[in-house]
Amino acid sequence: MAKPEIESGQALTLSQLSDDVLDKLRRAATTDAELSARLIVEEVTGIEPRLFPLEQDRPVTQGAVVRADAMTIRRAQGEPLQYVLGHWPFRYLDLAVDARALIPRPETEVVAGFVINLLQSLSRDDARKLIVSDMGTGSGAIALSIAHEVLHAEIHATDVSKEALSLARSNLAGLGRSAARVQLYQGDWFHALPDELCGTLDALISNPPYVSPDYELPSAVADWEPSDALIGGIDGFAYLEYITRNGRQWLRPGGWLVLECGSDQAVRLRNLAIARGYSEVVIKADLAGNDRAVIARRPLDDVETQHLSAASVALHSGNLVVAPTDTLPGLLARYFDTEAVKASYRAKQRPFTEPVPVLVSGVQQADQLVELDVSSRRLIERHWPGALTVVARRRDGTDPVHGRTTLGVRCPEPGWLRLLIDDVGPVTGSSANLHGIETLNSAQDAAAELSASVYYVIPGLSPGGTASTVVDVTGDTPVVLRAGPIEEIELKLDT
Asked: I want to staple 192 with a disulfide (CB 3.0 to 4.6 A). Which of 158, 360, 409, 419 is the partner?
């Protein structure tokens, strides 16, 4: 322990205390010894950082020396600097931090900035109250930053940990008047939120546990920070998937989902968001250039839930559904229900030897059906969801209806349609018309023209125009089989 006074009876100076703390941390092989020593001494003396270099000869009190010794021991034993100090900055706030919650990190500051920018943009366009949920709030860093920076935001923050929420309440108490717009709930994800919030959220943000249990964390993290806030299920993706699958219904049409994730999870998370019917799905990088978040939006033109539920029941029961797609009204049948597919052929009076496209919710469903190489995946990434049908080799031999070894797959643009397909499985999606007859743009009118009755019709109009562009990827070079809305130059088939 450092002595409060040197042998001459003089009190230790700021410089001497700093040297003593730094020496102890270096001997303990502390990785950031210089930074830790500086911040510990600033903390115990109360000297402002800007004045620190000018006050090196200032005497320090015995109390400051005792505190510095205690904090130095903790830091030398490996306890994170943030916990040792008991507080840490996050954007414009200084937050209390301890082992009850994760340490707020710069990556999360960036992710919080994404949703704050979105909300501020909404505030400029609409002066109404904005409703936001921060799920797994921990110390409250994200929720409190939103409340501090977005004046019209009402924040509902959740955490399953009572201890973490206790820390968040401590931070909330120091927020001032903005604290009145923050509500804290203890519980498991969406179960913690009041039911009346379902379908009302302008934004849903979360930094959930997303570390795989197989990943070797640094000891400073593994030994000190709460593991329940780090490990995301069997492969680290469980909570990301849960929030993405269930969050859509909690957003209002046009509401935003913002999820922090690991850099190796971003593409998988983006593909899942597309399959679950989100629009404007993008991957965002942190300050280090690593993929760190996925942002997605619930489409403004969502179909009513009652129509989706009825269509799902119909398809699961082996019946036919007509729905407006992004090109023409489609006649839908579950692809894995061979009898239903045959019924769709008969309704169109289409020869069984002629294949029909299969609609998938995204690349994951496509992978179940066909073989996709690297170039095919690049093509899909650029143009799905959209008016592109990719003809590839079928994974399991010949098709049971048309008998070919290839299959055309497409991921449609409407988010509600992808959501339906993700729930029921791939569906055949030929145009809802008699074979060789022009398709009507109204789903109701198109259904009435078929030669067999359709169990359910999702009402609406398709934009019409040409059917999707069809590209064969079975050879060494992709080949356009049918021209469509996507021109050959847009496909970049030579790359």
From this structure: 158
